[in-house]
């Protein structure tokens, strides 16, 4: 059952990342799209 706990931790990290991406879709890939647009 320890594996399930680890999976839950990963899911939490993914959820937090998704939340950040939703707030800042520009840097969702790790780079500013504005730089490419400019």
Describe the structure.
With 38 residues, the chain is mostly helical. Helix content is 71%, strand content 0%. The protein has helices at 2-23, 33-37. The longest helix has 22 residues, at 2-23. The mean pLDDT is 60.
* Amount of beta strand: under 5%
**Ends apart, CA distance between termini:** 50 Å
Let me know the number of strands: 0
Q: Outline the low-pLDDT stretches.
A: none
Structural class: mainly alpha
Task: State the gist of this model.
This protein has 38 residues and is an all-alpha fold.
How would the blueprint of this fold be written?
Blueprint: H1 2-23, H2 33-37
Q: What are the key terms here?
A:
mainly alpha; 38 residues
């Amino acid at each position: 059952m320890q594996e399930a706990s680890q999976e839950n931790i990963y899911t939490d990290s993914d959820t937090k990342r998704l939340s950040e991406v939703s707030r800042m879709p520009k840097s969702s890939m790790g780079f500013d799209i504005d730089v490419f647009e400019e």
